[in-house]
């Protein structure tokens, strides 16, 4: 079993990285980070190793630890891998979703996010994708997508100040769920592909802006 | 090869945090330290204890183990996190008519359709949409969610389905009833789940703080936490099942008493500043209660040592009974005047002045002082009167009548500082048994003169001889402890006299045995087992108790810190329960097979014998694996089978082993 303080440090640091509180490319001093989190250093170091495994943290011999960078090449590589997999996921969900899976998806569609900082909107989008991955009943697929999602999350927060496309993407969720419920695999796959492509197109459009700023 | 294994035991009690450094195999206590408990943040007191022990080579420490009142306190003081309790298949009318709702440990509980019956059959379909709708409505108002479904130990399907669905719509920690208790009491299971949920973050933060304190002292060793039955679990287990740490302090002191005395059968009496705890050691084990542990007004399904705790200790408040007659000792704990005067010399001056006043002007109220324990945050001070009280106490401790006068009040009851007292912003000081020890010269770390002055005032007010009244305090304390022991062992209580001229034989027998008065009849009560005394004042208070019970008093070396020793002396234990119960035909008349229900899987067998055999094997394997993961060294498994009515059997495997100490050179 993982140490409870490692788990906690992982959660807190991951949140800092994905919400850009720890900026891409910023150096990390485990000692100072432990002090800030009021924790021992060992669990912080362990958590950083886990994050390095997820490619959110980079460890080099010469420069020590830093937050992994994000760039346009990553964006393209991520989108071309993630899109077909998310589509596959939606198709499988349409074939395999149980009654409980559908109840969860409907509950998520009924939710109206409050708060204006975008964090909650994003969390809702994340849960929606996780719920579809769970409904696809393929744990390898779910695990792979979860990692890609974590990497995309930072792109989204980078682009956030320049964007206002999310409410429409929440509407897209509803149409995807309709297709899954009806068992229309082809349609679910197509809609999901469009949904993910729209996300990356939007981010790509504003990305040079954010890279400059 | 160095065969020494150093282990560090820490007990965070209500008054003191104790620590011991022990060589594990030889049972030698190498160092001990006491420090005042810091209730705001237990880790401060823990770090002070580690510092006070002066560990030469921190790398030599192979294990740290802690018993803590953290969970018990958090529940008693309502400091747990906010919890929503989802009750599935519970009957609202039944809960309301028996007022069970008050026992759920959270006001935020909700009913939903679902649940199973006594044969594990679905009672009604699960209302999953209703549950998700409710969770979405309340998720921002709570910190955790507890889920308990009717007869979930027989069939946890509904709890598991709710877990799967709720965890996909929110990130709150979720606790399932069937994971904490396999007993069938549905109210206790719901209460246990709710309490566990409210304590998750509390215990997690505690473990994080302790690990940080350890690291600052360069200690890198496995961390264990004591359960309510005195066994150990890893800090990681504890963070998932914090509710199991309830009553771990008293359990640890009983185990420490056994460990230090080498006695296999004895009664352990632990006298602290606040309480006296009594537990029984039988065949080397602390006797465990049949029923679940009770905390405050909540009945749980948590297994804990069978013990009795009474509110009498060295720092119990000595007062005058009703109508200015007789003595009262406790139940509240106060700062002894000797300590107060040591810290604030002005108090001794005031007591001098008081002792020269006339009888009328020196009532015992003048011996009760209030003091500011810490500076409160601004928002805590709600009323102008609270603000006035705090600013008055900033000038130093004040006697009660002075506070009444300064705040322009008529009576003590009008001060209204309950909240400040509860949060330990304002503290109380007064006469205590500890003061009497000071004036007798038996224990004198603080200002003995202050104690003597106060006692003179107290006795003069009642026209009593000082020596005589002091003897009466000791007799009264002995009686209270003996009475508690007799009640604990016999299960019978001595009722207060119904008539002034009491004719009850039981009462007469009991009191005549403590203090023989009858010219013809001699009675006595004898305890067969020896008494093990634990705690700093045990050597002072317990000889008279042992005499009254005609038994031997054993005060092992280091009995003052036996509770901290007990924190490391326990075994690592994991138990795994599996239920076997009949599967009925569709008509519900014939038994067509037997289910073997583990927490996460269920299998059907045609024959009962095959089902039981499978359950035995499965529980044994699971307990063994879990014990190894929990840090047990070479665990041994014992099986127990309990018939639970209606052709239902509970197979309990218990794996017990000594804690696995960290091997040298295997840090990673």
**CATH level 3 topology of the largest domain in chain A:** Four Helix Bundle (Hemerythrin (Met), subunit A)
Run of helices and strands of chain A: HHHEEHHHHHH
Percent strand of chain B: 15-25%
The DSSP helix count of chain B reads 21
Count of the domains of chain A: 2
Shape of chain A: globular
Low-confidence stretches of chain B: none
Second-tier CATH architecture of the largest domain in chain A: Up-down Bundle
Task: Give short descriptive properties of this protein.
heterodimer; A: 213 residues; mainly alpha; Arc Repressor Mutant, subunit A; B: 668 residues; alpha/beta; 6-stranded mixed β-sheet
Short overview:
Chain A has helices spanning 4-18, 30-37, 41-53, 72-96, 99-110, 119-135, 139-159, 166-181, 185-212, and strands spanning 57-60, 64-67. Chain A is mainly α and 213 residues long.
Draw up the topology in text.
The complex is a heterodimer of chains A (about 210) and B (about 675).
Chain A lengths: L3 H15 L11 H8 L3 H13 L3 E4 L3 E4 L4 H25 L2 H12 L8 H17 L3 H21 L6 H16 L3 H28 L1
Antiparallel strand pairs in A: 1-2
Helix pairs in contact in A: 1-3, 2-3, 4-6, 4-7, 4-8, 4-9, 5-6, 5-8, 6-7, 6-8, 7-9, 8-9
Chain B lengths: L5 E7 L3 E8 L4 E9 L5 H11 L8 E8 L1 H7 L6 E6 L3 H6 L11 E4 L15 H11 L5 E6 L7 H13 L4 E3 H4 L5 H31 L6 E4 L5 E3 H6 L7 H14 L4 E6 L4 E7 L2 E2 L7 E2 L2 E2 L7 E4 L5 E5 L6 E7 L1 E2 H7 L1 H11 L13 E4 L11 H10 L4 E2 H7 L11 H5 L3 E5 L2 H8 L7 H14 L4 H25 L14 H10 L16 E4 L3 H11 L4 E2 L7 H8 L2 E13 L6 E7 L4 E4 L2 H22 L2 E12 L5 E11 L9
Parallel strand pairs in B: 1-4, 4-9, 5-6, 5-7, 7-8, 11-23, 19-22, 23-24
Antiparallel strand pairs in B: 1-2, 2-3, 9-10, 11-12, 12-13, 12-16, 14-15, 17-18, 20-21, 20-22, 25-26, 25-29, 26-27, 28-29
Helix pairs in contact in B: 1-7, 2-7, 4-5, 9-20, 10-11, 11-16, 15-16, 17-19
Structure description:
- Chain A has 213 residues and is mainly α.
- In chain A, strands 1-2 form a two-stranded antiparallel ribbon.
- The mean pLDDT of chain A is 87.
- Chain A is 73% helix and 4% strand.
- A six-stranded mixed β-sheet of chain B has the order 3-2-1-4-9-10. In chain B, strands 11, 12, 13, 16, 23 and 24 form a six-stranded mixed β-sheet that branches.
- The chains are: A mainly alpha (213), B alpha/beta (668).
- Chains A and B meet through helix 1, helix 3, helix 5 and helix 6 of A and helix 4, helix 5, helix 7 and helix 8 of B.
């Amino acid at each position: 079993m993982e140490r409870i303080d490692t788990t906690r440090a992982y959660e807190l640091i991951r949140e800092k990285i994905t919400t850009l509180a720890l900026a891409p490319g910023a150096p990390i001093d485990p000692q100072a980070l432990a002090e800030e989190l009021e924790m021992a250093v060992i669990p912080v170091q362990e958590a950083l190793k886990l994050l390095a495994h997820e490619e959110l943290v980079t460890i080099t011999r010469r420069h020590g630890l830093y937050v992994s960078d994000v760039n346009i090449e990553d964006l393209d590589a991520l989108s071309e891998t993630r899109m077909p997999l998310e589509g596959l996921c939606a198709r499988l969900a349409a074939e395999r979703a149980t009654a409980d899976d559908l109840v969860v998806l409907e509950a998520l569609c009924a939710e109206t996010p409050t708060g204006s900082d975008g964090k909650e909107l994003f969390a809702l989008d994340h849960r929606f994708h996780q719920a579809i991955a769970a409904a696809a009943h393929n744990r390898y697929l779910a695990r792979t997508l979860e990692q890609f999602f974590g990497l995309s999350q930072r792109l989204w927060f980078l682009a956030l100040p320049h964007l206002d496309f999310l409410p429409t993407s929440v509407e897209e969720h509803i149409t995807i769920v309709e297709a899954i419920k009806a068992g229309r695999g082809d349609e679910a796959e197509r809609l999901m592909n469009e949904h993910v492509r729209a996300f990356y197109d939007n981010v790509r459009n504003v990305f040079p802006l954010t890279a400059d700023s | 090869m160095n065969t020494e294994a150093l282990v560090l035991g820490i007990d965070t009690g209500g008054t003191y945090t104790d620590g011991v450094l022990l060589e594990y195999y030889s049972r030698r206590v190498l160092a001990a330290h006491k420090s005042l408990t810091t209730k705001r943040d237990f880790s401060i007191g823990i770090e002070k204890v580690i510092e006070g022990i002066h560990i030469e080579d921190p790398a030599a420490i192979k294990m740290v183990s802690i018993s803590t009142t953290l969970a018990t306190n958090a529940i008693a003081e309502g400091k747990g996190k906010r919890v929503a309790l989802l009750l599935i298949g519970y009957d609202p009318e039944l809960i309301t008519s028996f007022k069970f709702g008050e026992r759920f440990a959270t006001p935020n509980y909700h009913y939903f359709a679902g649940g199973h019956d006594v044969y594990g059959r679905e009672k009604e379909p699960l209302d999953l949409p209703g549950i998700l709708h409710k969770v979405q409505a309340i998720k921002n108002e709570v910190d955790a969610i507890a889920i308990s479904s009717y007869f979930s130990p027989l069939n946890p399907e509904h709890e598991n389905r709710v877990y799967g669905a709720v965890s996909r719509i929110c990130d709150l920690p979720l606790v399932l009833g069937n994971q904490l208790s396999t007993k069938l009491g549905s109210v206790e299971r719901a209460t246990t789940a709710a309490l566990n949920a409210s304590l998750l973050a509390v215990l997690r933060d505690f473990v994080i703080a302790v690990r940080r304190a350890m690291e600052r002292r360069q200690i890198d060793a496995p961390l264990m936490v004591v359960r309510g039955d005195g066994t150990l679990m890893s800090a990681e287990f504890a963070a998932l099942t914090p509710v199991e740490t309830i009553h771990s302090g008293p359990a640890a002191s009983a185990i420490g008493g056994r460990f230090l005395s080498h006695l296999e059968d004895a009664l352990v009496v632990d006298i602290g500043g606040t309480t006296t705890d009594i537990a029984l050691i039988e065949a080397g084990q602390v006797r465990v209660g049949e029923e679940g542990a009770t905390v405050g007004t909540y009945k749980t399904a948590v297994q804990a040592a069978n013990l009795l705790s009474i509110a009498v200790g060295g720092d119990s408040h000595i007062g005058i009974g009703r109508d200015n007659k007789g003595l009262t000792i406790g139940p509240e704990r106060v700062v002894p005047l000797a300590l107060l005067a040591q810290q604030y010399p002005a108090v001794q001056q005031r007591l001098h002045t008081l002792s020269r006043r006339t009888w009328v002007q020196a009532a015992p109220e003048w011996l009760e002082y209030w003091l500011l324990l810490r500076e409160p945050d601004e928002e805590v001070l709600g009323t102008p009167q609270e603000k006035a009280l705090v600013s008055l106490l900033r000038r130093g401790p004040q006697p009660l009548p002075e506070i009444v006068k300064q705040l322009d009040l008529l009576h003590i009851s009008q001060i209204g500082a309950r909240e400040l007292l509860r949060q330990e912003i304002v503290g109380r000081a007064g006469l205590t048994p500890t003061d009497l020890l000071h004036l007798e010269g038996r224990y004198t770390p603080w200002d003995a003169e202050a104690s003597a002055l106060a006692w003179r005032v107290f006795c003069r007010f009642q026209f009593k001889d000082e020596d005589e009244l002091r003897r009466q305090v000791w007799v009264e304390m002995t009686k209270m402890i003996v009475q508690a022991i007799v009640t604990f062992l016999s299960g019978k209580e001595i009722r207060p006299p119904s008539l002034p001229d009491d004719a009850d034989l039981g009462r007469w027998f009991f009191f005549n045995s403590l203090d023989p008065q009858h010219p013809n009849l001699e009675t006595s009560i004898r305890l067969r087992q020896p008494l093990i005394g634990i705690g700093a004042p045990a050597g002072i208070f317990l000889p008279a108790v042992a005499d009254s019970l005609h038994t031997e008093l054993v005060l092992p070396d280091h009995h003052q810190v036996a509770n901290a020793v007990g924190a490391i002396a326990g075994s690592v234990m994991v138990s795994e329960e599996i239920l076997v119960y009949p599967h009925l035909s569709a008509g519900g008349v014939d038994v067509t097979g037997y289910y073997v229900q583990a927490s996460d899987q269920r299998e059907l067998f045609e024959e009962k014998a095959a089902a039981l055999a499978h359950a035995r094997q499965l529980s044994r394997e699971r307990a063994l694996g879990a014990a190894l993961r929990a840090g047990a060294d070479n665990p041994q498994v014992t099986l127990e089978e309990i018939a639970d009515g209606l052709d239902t059997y509970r197979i309990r495997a218990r794996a017990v082993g000594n804690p696995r100490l960290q091997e040298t050179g295997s840090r990673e």
